[in-house]
Structures are given as C-alpha cells and as structure tokens.
Amino acid sequence: MQIEREFGVPFPGRILPQNKWTQTALKAMPAEGRLNWHELFGREAPVVLDLGCGNGRSTILSAVSRPTHDHLGTDILPVVIRYARKRGNQRGLANLRFAVLGAHELLEQYVEPNSVAEIHIYHPQPYYDPKQIHRRLITPEFLALVHRSLQPGGTIVIQTDNPGYANYLRDVLPVFFDFHERIGRWPDAPKGRTRREILALKKKLPIFRGSGTAKTDLSTEDAVRLAESLPPPTFDADRRLRDLDRLA
User: Fold this and answer.
1) What is the widest separation between alpha-carbon atoms in the chain?
2) What is the pLDDT of residues 65-97, one digit of tens each?
3) Residue 113 above 70 pLDDT?
4) Burial of 90 from C-beta contacts in 10 A (0-12 / 13-18 / 19+)
C-alpha cells in the first residue's frame, strides 16, 4: 500500500491494491425530486456534506476516519473533482461520493430538508473583484438553506483564512446556529484538513475555524425571514491574499 503526500503532509488513507478500488462518482443528479441517501449509499447512516470540497482531502479524511458516516463532496470545478474521485476510488471508500455541483444548487434542489447530519464548508472563495462579490457563497439566504437541510441539532463546520469573511461569519452564523469559534487547530488534522489550510498554516495566516448546531427553535420560515433582514457579504476581501488562492 502506498502513502501520498501533499506539501509534505500525508494525504488521508492509503492507496489499496486495484482489486479493492471502488467508484465514488455521483454521475447524475435525480431528474426529478431529491437525493435519497439510502439508495445512494445502500444503508441508513448519518450523512456529511463537504461543500466546495476541492481535491477531496477533507472529505476523504472524514470518510476514512468515520466509516459509520456517509459522505458527499461537491465542487463546481470538474478538474478538482476528478482528483477527488481518483483518490476516493483508490482508497476503496464505499461511504463516499463526489459530484460536480454548486453548493447552493445542491441544497436548494437536491437535499431533502432535515436530512443531513453535518455540512462542512472550508475556505469559500471570497472573490476580490467588487464586480464578483455577488458570487460569494455564504449569504444569509444560503445559511437559511443550510439550516433547512440539517437535521434538528445538525452541525455546520466552517473555516476561512480571509479576515473579511471571518468578521462577516462572526456576525451572521449565530443567527441560525448555536455557533462557537474554535481556538487552535483541528485535533484530527493539526497540519490542515484541506490543501488550502496547509498552505495558510505555512504562510502563518490567522485562520477562523468554528462549528455550531442548527437552532431547534428556529423554523424554516423564520430562518428565511431572518435571512431577508440581514446584510449581504459586501466586505473588502483584501487582494493581498489572491496569490495564495492561485496556489491553492
């Protein structure tokens, strides 16, 4: 069995002999209706979504370490999903799927309300050009969708090294979630859960990390109304961080 490394940090899991590989591609979304997790994974288990999963490091880390959970990682970039699928296949992970799909589209169209145990979002793209800030993922409307998708008391995990994004998250996340900012690194991956986090740590950038549970006294309708009253993410993203984005 082989061990891969990325920027000197071992990639989660081991490459198995080819006869133990599996298929992690979610090739097509339902023509009608929403995803059925039992049909997709062939069992009843807690479902974890990794939105904007990139090359799959964080998704694969969780799938390897938590075989009792089923995982779906999505990203809008086909090239990174190809890398993620290849690595997932080579590790024989039956509790893992990857798809080329936007996070907002996934939650709005394909995820049954109150059906997901955890939603992870690592380093959402801040978009530096003022003409592009409307493309930022973390908006109040999107967080209302996250709240709708999670089971009562389900968990959101989020991380960014962009100070503007971090300040915005500190303001809006507690509206929908009982949220706590984490001090220090993730214990399961002290060198970084994601490729981007590894690079940010090497650059000694401050990283905002946190998790929270969906407020159980907040209805879907109330969450939508609250979202309409909150400001959009129009913060200054600080263009000095763009070079790290290109490298990641």
Assistant:
1) 54
2) 999 999 999 999 999 999 999 999 999 999 999
3) yes
4) buried
Contact 148, 140 (CB under 8 A): no
pLDDT band at 106 (very low <50, low <70, confident <90, very high): very high
Residue 117's SS3 state is: strand
CATH class of 39-247: alpha beta
Per-domain boundaries in the chain = 39-247
Q: Which of 17, 9, 188, 227 is nearest to 104 (CA)?
A: 227
Looking at residue 241, its pLDDT comes to 63
Which residues contact residue 200 at a Cβ distance below 8 angstroms, ignoring those fewer than 6 apart?
123, 161, 192, 207, 244
Three state DSSP letters for 12-29: CCCECCHHHCCCCECCCC
242 has a pLDDT exceeding 70: no
Cα separations in angstroms, 132 against 42, 115, 127, 242, 243: 40, 32, 6, 14, 17
Paired tokens of 46: 């807690």
